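Exercise: predict the fold of this chain.
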Amino acid sequence: MSTTSTPELPEIPATMRAVVVHGPGDYRLETRPVPTPGPGELLLRTDAVGICASDLKCYHGAAKFWGDQNRPAWAETNRIPGHEFVGTVIAGDDTALTKRKLALGDRIACEQIVPCWECRYCLEGAYWMCAVHDMFGFKGYDGAMAEYVLVPAKALTHPVSADLPGQVAAFAEPLSCAFHAVERAEIKFGDTVVIAGAGPIGLSAIAGARQKNPLRIIALDVLDTKLDLAKAVGADLTINIATHDAVQIIKDLTDGYGADVYIEATGHPSAVPQGLNLLRKLGTFVEYSVFKDNVSVDWSIISDDKELDIRGAHLGPHTWPAAIKLLETQTLPMDRICTHQFPLEAFQEALDLVGDSAGASVKVSIIPSMSS
């Protein structure tokens, strides 16, 4: 429950500006009705929404979202995108507020998945693997690339300090996801941990691994600017793989054995065999990325050569409070991570910037209240 007085809330308008998905490569800014919360639901004024690499891959038509010969389409058209968001509660019934220990004017972040709470996985407690797999901005529920967003009764929410800038508070989503990847790695004190990629997820994984305090954390990327940032969030050593042989350097550091843990956070196909090659026998490979293209590797490395433990990681179950706590301590250089903010009208420019392979940005966010 908020311990401060409830701020005066603005009148809720009838319509709002929203980005709407009409298909791959076809996102449009439109006027939509402001949702009306029903029983157990909340209405948020969107404070900020981050643009994820998965948003960009959905925009570009990746098979994971729009289907191929191996899988049906998952993403939906006529849907408002945006799953990395934080907002201020401006409407909701007493049941919804009491259940979530909230008051009007409080700020919350929502987990990206909206579980059905009825399938096998939900009933077993693995809600993040829900068989229905509705998710804000992709399937089942509109996301937050809009001035307002509806929070269904089934959603999971977490309080966030209103003192944080919106783009920083919204970073709880990628940070919690990376924390889950770190949990999946089961890092030990004596481990050499290698994290591929120093984008939002990679940087978050470095920050999470730092909390585990292994022997050394090594960050890999192709841009020195991002490797400098990796150092700032907790990496002991950085390697630019464009100019140095990371596999050899890591083997030299580990008496020829290789790393104990490798967390893949680039989404680039070349990072997968890289990890297989630099891990020691009986090492652990954690895959977090969403790939645009298929990846092929020599599976005999995984089995006969090294007997590796290969683990996937999806979303951020049970890690949101820890991620939010770390953000609220203001110990991470978030001003260097949250590099760009755009108004809703500039959503296309924001998407294009995320897709800039030259690394012009780190974390790009949309602030609906920002003037164009």
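Check your answer against the key: The radius of gyration is 21 Å.
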